[in-house]
Amino acid sequence: MNEVLLIYAAALLLAWPLGRYLAAIYSATPTVLDQVFGPVEWVIYRAIGVDPLAPMSWKAYGKALLKLHLIIALIALVILVQQGWLPANPDGVEGMSWDLALHTTASFITNTNQQHYSGQAQLSYFAHLVAIVSMQVITPAAGIAALVAILRTAFTQRDATASTPEGAVSVGNFHADLVRAIVRVMLPVAFITALLLAWQGVPNTFMGARTVTPLDTGTGLAEQRIPVGPVAPMVAIKQLGTNGGGWYGPNSSVPLENPTPVSNFVETIAIVLIPMALVFMAGYLTGRRRLAILVMGVMLSLSALLTGINIWSENQPNAAFAGLAADGPNLEGKEVRFGATATALWGSFTTQTSNGSVNGMHDSFNPLGGATTLMDMFINATFGGVGVGLINFLLFLLLAVFLGSLMVGRSPEVYGRALEAREIKLICIALLIQPLLILGLTATAVAIPGLAQNSNPGFHGLSQVLYEYTSAFANNGSGFEGLGDDTVWWNLSCAVALILGRFIPILAPLALAAHLAGKRVAPMTSGSLAVETPTFAVLTLGVILMFALLSFFPVLALGPVAEFLSLAN
Amino acid sequence: MNHAQSVARISTATPVAHWLQALRGALVLMVLCGGLYPLFTVAIGAALFHVQSTGSLIERDGQMIGSALVGQPFSAPGYFHGRPSVAGYDPFAVSGSNLAPSNPTLRERASVSSSAFSAANGVAPTAIPVDLVAASGSGIDPHISPAAAEIQIDRVAAARGRPRSEVAGLVAARVERPVLGVLGQPRVNVLQLNLALDALGSEAGVTP
């Protein structure tokens, strides 16, 4: 328990100064940082051929984002298919099949990192670094850029006595927002984290696999090839950028990827560090610190609630071992050096933030523990993915403003700007596509024989399918990994969920922000709904829980809840 | 950058120019993030932490005998045994079982492990520490719990013909405690414990 409290406290204590630093990066006034990073960025802007000061409308911003992502994805796709003859391939890995390469590209360009392959055996060093690691740095930076654009457009204080058409509202410059996030945040923080991990024993080399002769020759295993490589820089950024895709198939449960309790401490904090820091950043950047406190309070409450249930659940015995071993926590799929509590904490953080890395197998979690990880991903705004998590939260917040205002009979407005039909439509598009797509695809995969490929029977088989699509849409990337998911159906249907789950929740809120920013600001009166209050925080919490529960309670009842009840007998 | 202002300069660039910017952006950023960042990190990290960087390999008598971070299978009664692995301790095939608690296959597998261990060590099934029945997540977990080592001491000592207290002392000396008393679980590295056992044996000329 002390380990859990220590990790929460350390993450918050590190996220606070990082949040201040992020706010300084995106503040309108020049800082000392410009002298350090400015020249590097100037070279990058020149090489790309862009003017970092040119203002962009939301459409121009969104198009620049989409075009860059599309080109990166195409390059990555070619690398994955052709990796067999490309350089830095000491273990002789062959190229990927087209559908697996397509899914992998869609998965990494959407900051999801759902893996239908095992990296140590199916990716060359070149593909790992140039295709995978570069997307692991760029996509969270794009999430930060989108968040900053939305915050500065719709949530900063300003007076507007006349309305502006949304096309004429500047949301900032995409290239400047993106490059600053990469150069000033992602790469420096990842470098420090990678060195900490290398110190703890994560491989950090360009030499190929070494062969060793095991001690006990009577077991039938004549030799072990130890897969290594430039693992440390990848593990650092996959933890920090809510990416989650690791070097080895079972991710950070593998001791080469997460060797010690200290590396586990570092990697667990790295999961939540930047998502938490962005909440602090929002407070400093917009000058609305009480709003940031409200957001952090609601997020921490949700996190503590679901993490607590998960930790309790995983400390219960695994029902399959009754009478076959001494009573103890559920250690199936878990590592001895971490134990059940640290694994459950990681499982909660990784699903709350859309990270998706694991240090134990979620498929073997007890039913209620597995249910909490699904709940985390349905909500997908408890810290959430880098940038996009807070964007999701702000959507819930606007929905709460709308509902709260109607309940007390006021016209809904946020910081003086009226929420009208168009805003509510955009919020609904962004929020409702989630249950529609997840439940629709799950039902399809289960209904048509031969599609699902679930490896566990009964209620849990449904949970496996549900988890895969939930994870894809939430851009999480973890899985109930027993699923036989390297099939054309799974690769293509998940790719659809991945792409819609990434770009709709970025573009719809961006349009919404520009539209809101163009409105005339009404002065705050005693009749305005007070957003920055504890009462409103409770209302927001209620809206989030109700939304997730109403959408998904039936399928939760059929999957993990039914499994729990059947085992309880 | 005053972002409160409206879009003053309307971009006159053509769509082709925008695609060209995207292409140049993709190439520049992929070289920076996928090339320079990992190369720089590996160069610095490998220089600072040389032993760790290649996989914490262990050498004995000039032969690479394993990695401190990769568990090995043991079947001889004179060695301590590690956890069940669905990957057969092959580090290129790392995997967990991914079996749900409700899956009958998991109970069947556990009951095979449980009765085999119970017979080999002469203990009741309900006395077996659960990490010896539950498969690890990676399939190459190098550790077992201290209780899982202690319950094997009688068997190992008998097989090697050494006093129980000597083997027990070896186990006690190799228990790793939580860092700062908080982080992680108490544990024993099975390969390193068995190497220490062999070192005892070679002094007295006894092999397992």
From TrEMBL, chain A:
<keyword id="KW-0813">Transport</keyword>
<dbReference type="GO" id="GO:0008556">
    <property type="term" value="F:P-type potassium transmembrane transporter activity"/>
</dbReference>
<keyword id="KW-0630">Potassium</keyword>
<feature type="transmembrane region" description="Helical">
    <location>
        <begin position="377"/>
        <end position="403"/>
    </location>
</feature>
<comment type="similarity">
    <text>Belongs to the KdpA family.</text>
</comment>
<dbReference type="GO" id="GO:0005886">
    <property type="term" value="C:plasma membrane"/>
</dbReference>
<keyword id="KW-1003">Cell membrane</keyword>
<keyword id="KW-1133">Transmembrane helix</keyword>
<feature type="transmembrane region" description="Helical">
    <location>
        <begin position="68"/>
        <end position="86"/>
    </location>
</feature>
<keyword id="KW-0406">Ion transport</keyword>
<feature type="transmembrane region" description="Helical">
    <location>
        <begin position="265"/>
        <end position="284"/>
    </location>
</feature>
<keyword id="KW-0812">Transmembrane</keyword>
<dbReference type="InterPro" id="IPR004623">
    <property type="entry name" value="KdpA"/>
</dbReference>
<comment type="subunit">
    <text>The system is composed of three essential subunits: KdpA, KdpB and KdpC.</text>
</comment>
<keyword id="KW-0472">Membrane</keyword>
<feature type="transmembrane region" description="Helical">
    <location>
        <begin position="424"/>
        <end position="448"/>
    </location>
</feature>
<keyword id="KW-0633">Potassium transport</keyword>
<dbReference type="GO" id="GO:0030955">
    <property type="term" value="F:potassium ion binding"/>
</dbReference>
<feature type="transmembrane region" description="Helical">
    <location>
        <begin position="488"/>
        <end position="514"/>
    </location>
</feature>
<comment type="function">
    <text>Part of the high-affinity ATP-driven potassium transport (or Kdp) system, which catalyzes the hydrolysis of ATP coupled with the electrogenic transport of potassium into the cytoplasm. This subunit binds the extracellular potassium ions and delivers the ions to the membrane domain of KdpB through an intramembrane tunnel.</text>
</comment>
<feature type="transmembrane region" description="Helical">
    <location>
        <begin position="181"/>
        <end position="202"/>
    </location>
</feature>
<feature type="transmembrane region" description="Helical">
    <location>
        <begin position="535"/>
        <end position="557"/>
    </location>
</feature>
Automatic annotation (TrEMBL), chain B:
<keyword id="KW-0812">Transmembrane</keyword>
<comment type="subunit">
    <text>The system is composed of three essential subunits: KdpA, KdpB and KdpC.</text>
</comment>
<feature type="transmembrane region" description="Helical">
    <location>
        <begin position="26"/>
        <end position="51"/>
    </location>
</feature>
<keyword id="KW-1133">Transmembrane helix</keyword>
<protein>
    <recommendedName>
        <fullName>Potassium-transporting ATPase KdpC subunit</fullName>
    </recommendedName>
</protein>
<dbReference type="Pfam" id="PF02669">
    <property type="entry name" value="KdpC"/>
</dbReference>
<keyword id="KW-0067">ATP-binding</keyword>
<keyword id="KW-0633">Potassium transport</keyword>
<keyword id="KW-0472">Membrane</keyword>
<keyword id="KW-1003">Cell membrane</keyword>
<dbReference type="InterPro" id="IPR003820">
    <property type="entry name" value="KdpC"/>
</dbReference>
<keyword id="KW-0406">Ion transport</keyword>
<keyword id="KW-0630">Potassium</keyword>
<comment type="function">
    <text>Part of the high-affinity ATP-driven potassium transport (or Kdp) system, which catalyzes the hydrolysis of ATP coupled with the electrogenic transport of potassium into the cytoplasm. This subunit acts as a catalytic chaperone that increases the ATP-binding affinity of the ATP-hydrolyzing subunit KdpB by the formation of a transient KdpB/KdpC/ATP ternary complex.</text>
</comment>
<dbReference type="GO" id="GO:0005886">
    <property type="term" value="C:plasma membrane"/>
</dbReference>
<keyword id="KW-0813">Transport</keyword>
<keyword id="KW-0547">Nucleotide-binding</keyword>
<comment type="similarity">
    <text>Belongs to the KdpC family.</text>
</comment>
<dbReference type="GO" id="GO:0005524">
    <property type="term" value="F:ATP binding"/>
</dbReference>
<dbReference type="GO" id="GO:0008556">
    <property type="term" value="F:P-type potassium transmembrane transporter activity"/>
</dbReference>
